[in-house]
Amino acid sequence: MHQPTGVKAPRKAALASWIGSAVEYYDFFIYGTAAALIFPKIFFSAADPQAAAIASFATFGVAYIARPFGAVILGHIGDQFGRKKVLTFTLLLMGFSTFIIGCLPTYDHVGILAPILLVVARLLQGISAAGEQAGANSMTLEHAPPNRRAFFTSFTLSGTQAGLILATLVFIPIARLPEADLLSWAWRIPFFLSLVVVVVGFWVRRTLPETPVFIEEAKKHETSKLPFITLFKNNWTDVLRIVFAALISVVSTIFSVFTLSYAVNTMQIDRSTMLTVLVLANIVALGAIPAWAMLADRIGRKPVFIFGALGCAVLIWPYIWAISQGNLTLIFVLGILLSGIVYSASNGVWPALYGEMFDTRVRLSGMAIGTQIGFALGGFAPTISAALLGTGPNGWVPVAAFTTITAIIAAISAATASETYQTPMEDLGKKSASAVA
């Protein structure tokens, strides 16, 4: 089986994945920030603020309903026609749908039509995101040197963190504007800026070559005609395993969306302060993710992922408690430790852990479908948590318990997988892979 022989293609694939993911998730995350701070006030009735917050979080989560369906479609295209076609399509669709959100009328202008249009645009974002990470991960994994697959695939997730940093940095000065300006026109600026970052991402990806292993399979006419059917015939247990392991994403959305809303709207902590916590945590993650991935290339994917999941199950408690106490020092320290360092262990390793469960014929479909079903709960975690949130000083406890349970489930699921860090590319996804490892 052909392996990348030089360093140019793997590095170019990693760079393209990094920049593409940054662009995609800049668009995706500006929605999350707006859903927490702005959309409840402009896209829903002001009569019941709590109901408006729950509805706004639901529009954030609705993209995750579209993602499993998008995963089936884009997985089929990527496994039959190539990874590059999927990556070009997802980039353009995300940019279009994000720009449209910035153009939407508000509730005061068109009433119930405003949230309906918002949901439609969000669904398009979800379809795009469904194929982005799986496509970028497959592209990078298949270009990577055999003994550095986790390191190279981690750049996809580093790009995701960069997108979150960029989205948050854009919102920090806008959040400092007077409330009237913020709600009337300023909130639209981050959505219009998506056109700029999409152009950059498209320019980088347009010259990226298709992966050697996919080209070889295409030449031999070994690509699957119906990847979805082949996947569930041979790898349904791996898909199920990824679904439960992907529940670790609950930690991310609780940290970046729910706790932001809880801190600002319930505990009256300054918006800029909490956005700064998000930025600092993700700046730390930019270094932590590849570091954890390098460790996974030396000791295996499973121990690193499991450490991250169990660490998050514990750290979510003191972090939300610190917010409930308004202790800014602890909020910064625990936020960086939770999201920037410990969560990065699971986040940086899952692209290799999941991708190595499948062979080339169904890799993109397997990763896309498995992750997007699991991510669906992550997407609705802020909505669930808003409903679980009680009153009084300990009202946050059910939210922390919910996050802990999902993180433990993710750790258990990962523990049942085969360790593949020493398995050759040509043996990945085969029944004998665990024996080879």
UniProtKB/TrEMBL annotation:
<keyword id="KW-1003">Cell membrane</keyword>
<feature type="transmembrane region" description="Helical">
    <location>
        <begin position="395"/>
        <end position="415"/>
    </location>
</feature>
<keyword id="KW-0813">Transport</keyword>
<feature type="transmembrane region" description="Helical">
    <location>
        <begin position="330"/>
        <end position="354"/>
    </location>
</feature>
<feature type="transmembrane region" description="Helical">
    <location>
        <begin position="185"/>
        <end position="204"/>
    </location>
</feature>
<dbReference type="InterPro" id="IPR020846">
    <property type="entry name" value="MFS_dom"/>
</dbReference>
<keyword id="KW-0472">Membrane</keyword>
<feature type="transmembrane region" description="Helical">
    <location>
        <begin position="304"/>
        <end position="324"/>
    </location>
</feature>
<feature type="transmembrane region" description="Helical">
    <location>
        <begin position="53"/>
        <end position="74"/>
    </location>
</feature>
<feature type="transmembrane region" description="Helical">
    <location>
        <begin position="275"/>
        <end position="295"/>
    </location>
</feature>
<dbReference type="Pfam" id="PF00083">
    <property type="entry name" value="Sugar_tr"/>
</dbReference>
<feature type="transmembrane region" description="Helical">
    <location>
        <begin position="151"/>
        <end position="173"/>
    </location>
</feature>
<dbReference type="GO" id="GO:0022857">
    <property type="term" value="F:transmembrane transporter activity"/>
</dbReference>
<feature type="transmembrane region" description="Helical">
    <location>
        <begin position="86"/>
        <end position="107"/>
    </location>
</feature>
<feature type="transmembrane region" description="Helical">
    <location>
        <begin position="28"/>
        <end position="47"/>
    </location>
</feature>
<feature type="domain" description="Major facilitator superfamily (MFS) profile">
    <location>
        <begin position="13"/>
        <end position="418"/>
    </location>
</feature>
<keyword id="KW-1133">Transmembrane helix</keyword>
<dbReference type="GO" id="GO:0005886">
    <property type="term" value="C:plasma membrane"/>
</dbReference>
<dbReference type="InterPro" id="IPR036259">
    <property type="entry name" value="MFS_trans_sf"/>
</dbReference>
<keyword id="KW-0812">Transmembrane</keyword>
<feature type="transmembrane region" description="Helical">
    <location>
        <begin position="242"/>
        <end position="263"/>
    </location>
</feature>
<dbReference type="InterPro" id="IPR005828">
    <property type="entry name" value="MFS_sugar_transport-like"/>
</dbReference>
<protein>
    <submittedName>
        <fullName>MFS family permease</fullName>
    </submittedName>
</protein>
<feature type="transmembrane region" description="Helical">
    <location>
        <begin position="366"/>
        <end position="389"/>
    </location>
</feature>
